[in-house]
């Protein structure tokens, strides 16, 4: 058992190479009990590789990894039963009926959730007797989630969980994940491309770009880490639209007021969003001349 103080996931200097291609270049992560942690990053950044290493499905090249007090490379069945994976399991069980499949998976665990109650939680009670291959995409994904949590995992891995969800299903899913974390203390590691989803759900967000964590923190802290500036827009006295980026928006607005001797037309102050931060990080990586040996850029990002 992990204690409250001990992180559920602790990763130090994780590296991974496929052949001679470095995919993870020294990743550090610390995730605590009951936290919803989002791993964000562009295609090919190394998110799935990281998660597969944490799940114990892939051997790393180097570094230390501790998940629920165990090195995943040595995780046994008892350890595995404490983690939940949301996989596309239904693909292998097309002919099964929904409730039947859930009852079957429940038998794998020592203390499973009640399958009927779980169907209710994920909003699939009406589909209990339906064949899995007759479900809609969103309904299948909810079934994936039900299969992932039927064993009451302490740690839940969600790999792009809401792909294909309509807005209402996405909202219900977010409420469900929040309830698992807040009420039951389940730790959730989520990978997503959806910035709004990360911002809405995550306590902590790590941005992984080219195998390195470029920024990590609460959604509201990330913009500051990227040093992205606020943008002030207004219309000048001659009618020209103006815009300026500044680290001190209130000072700029004060100066505009002073110089205009009165109101400023169409004044708008736009704070950096998570999307600005994300694009800034990804763009900065594109500008690296040699990302493989650019330790300075990494050091700056970590210290920022
Ligand atoms: N089994 C493998 N053998 C060789 N290279 C691989 C293997 N799996 C992944 N890669 C490469 O490693 C890099 C990271 O892949 P990974 O799937 O971890 O990225 P990702 O961040 O999950 O991307 P996406 O958002 O597209 O799912 C990519 O360049 C990919 O081509």
TrEMBL record:
It comes from the Bacteria. Residues 284-304 are annotated as: Disordered. InterPro entries: AAA+_ATPase, ABC_transporter-like_ATP-bd, ABC_transporter-like_CS, ABC_transporter_ATP-binding, P-loop_NTPase. Gene3D superfamilies: P-loop containing nucleotide triphosphate hydrolases. SMART domains: AAA. It holds the Pfam family ABC_tran. Residues 9-235 form the ABC transporter domain. Keywords: Antibiotic resistance, ATP-binding, Nucleotide-binding, Transport. PANTHER family: ABC TRANSPORTER ATP-BINDING PROTEIN, ABC TRANSPORTER ATP-BINDING PROTEIN NATA. Belongs to the ABC transporter superfamily. This is ABC transporter ATP-binding protein. It comes from Streptomyces lanatus.
């Amino acid at each position: 058992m992990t204690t409250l103080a001990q992180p559920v996931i602790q990763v130090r200097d994780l590296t991974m190479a496929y052949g001679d291609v470095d995919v993870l270049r020294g990743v550090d992560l610390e995730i605590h009990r009951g936290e919803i942690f989002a791993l964000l990053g562009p295609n090919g950044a190394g998110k799935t590789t990281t998660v597969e290493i944490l799940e114990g499905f892939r051997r790393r090249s180097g570094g230390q990894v501790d998940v629920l007090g165990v090195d995943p490379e040595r995780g046994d069945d008892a350890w595995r039963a404490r983690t939940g994976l949301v996989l596309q399991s239904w693909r292998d069980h097309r002919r099964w009926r929904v409730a039947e499949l859930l009852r079957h998976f429940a038998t794998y665990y020592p203390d499973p959730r009640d399958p009927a109650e779980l169907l209710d939680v994920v909003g699939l009670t009406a589909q209990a007797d339906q064949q899995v291959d007759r479900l809609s995409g969103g309904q299948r994904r909810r079934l994936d989630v039900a299969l992932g949590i039927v064993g009451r995992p302490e740690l839940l891995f969600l790999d792009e969980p809401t792909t294909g969800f309509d807005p209402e299903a996405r909202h219900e899913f977010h409420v469900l994940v929040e309830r698992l974390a807040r009420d039951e203390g389940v730790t959730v590691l989520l990978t997503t491309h959806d910035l709004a989803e990360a911002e809405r759900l995550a306590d902590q967000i790590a941005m992984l770009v080219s195998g390195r964590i470029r920024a990590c923190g609460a959604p509201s802290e990330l913009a500051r880490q990227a040093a992205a500036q606020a943008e002030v827009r207004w219309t000048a006295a001659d009618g020209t639209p103006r815009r300026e980026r500044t680290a001190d928006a209130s000072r700029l607005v004060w100066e505009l007021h002073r110089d205009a001797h009165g109101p400023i037309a169409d004044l708008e102050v736009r704070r950096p969003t998570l999307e600005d931060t994300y694009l800034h990080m990804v763009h900065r990586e594109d500008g690296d001349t040699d990302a493989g040996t650019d330790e300075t850029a990494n050091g700056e990002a970590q210290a920022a």
